[in-house]
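pasting for the record
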Amino acid sequence: MPDRRGGSGAGFEMSSYYAIGARPLAAPRLSSDERADVVIIGAGYTGLWTALECVRRGLSAVVLEARSVGFGASGRNGGQAIPGWRKGVPDLIRTFGAERARRLFALSEEARRSVLSLIAEEGLECDLRQGGHLLAAARRRDVEGLKREAEALASFIGYGEARFLTAEDVRERVASARSFGGLLDMGGFQIHPLKFALGLARAALRRGARIYEESPVLEIEATSNGVRIRAEGGDVRADHAVVACDALPGGPAPWLASAVMPVAAYQIATEPLAGADQLIRGGLAVSDTRFAVNYYRISADNRLIFGGGERYTVRPPATIEGFVRPFLEEVFPQARDLRIEHAWGGLVSITRSRFPDVGREGRLLHALGFSGQGVLLTALAGRAMAEDLIGRPDMLREMEGLSPSRFPGGEFLRSPLYSVGMLYHAARDRL
């Protein structure tokens, strides 16, 4: 039976490494009826950015979170802030045309600046390291695509932060022989994802937002003049509602279920390493071009944090360390004897297009399916929805339609159907 606090539980009740050093918000549970201009379902990055941007614009906002702030993907992800979109500039041009491609990249840059500005203005202690991001070519056939992306960023966009690296250049920065080259983007950075989520929540609270934890939503109802959200502890009436609960299955908005596919992702954190900077130099965050992406970085306390492989079922592996370690040792054979001190999992939601699904239908708005780019692009979605709510729809209209197609198969068949395709592409990673 689904757990109303956030789906089936999905085996992701385990605490992540990030929970150890983060100070919980300890927000109250909803215990009475409330009224607001906007009610937001979900206290991950999307919901919190939306709340912050709403109160900045004079709207009252209530956030309902089934678990705790950052419990889902926002608080347990890889901590990598990767500029741009999941698809590169040549793909943007092919899909949307030259002018819209430029506009979309400019919006992604606004999102990057928003995150960095908030960290600076609020003094958020989230282990920010601005060492850049490296997209490493895991296969020889990926090199030409990275070269084209570097050229498009420079000549078409006029973006000066990125450049192509040869395999030798990559090895000077990452102690691995598994890369055939890479795209280095010095606009990228890394954060402690849960500390950032909690800091974002506190910034919204200071400006007047109301956040309730352990307050799962049971029903969303349209009324004659707004919406009524029935939750454990009370009802919230508002002019508009925002669905921002993303990847967790069994949520309160089943009509959005076909927009995304939840994918299980797993990570490990090693013991603190004396020579961590010799493994990955200069605070660089790294991900690769595999279909089932490997991603890794050195944390503020000198641990190697490594995520690898994906599972297309919410059933966790027998042991997370046993699942992730082969990917770790393929990239870093010298890590074979390192002790793993933490292992955890979580769900990330993807769309068919890998662009987020953002939109509005009547008084209901939604943003979900950030497909691994949520550290930055959720800031953009939150701002777009807040702007729309005060009568400025241009940004939301720019984001609507980025992910027009839904997954086939309905609630029960879409995962098995899609898994077949995913396993095929994952198998190609090994070729």
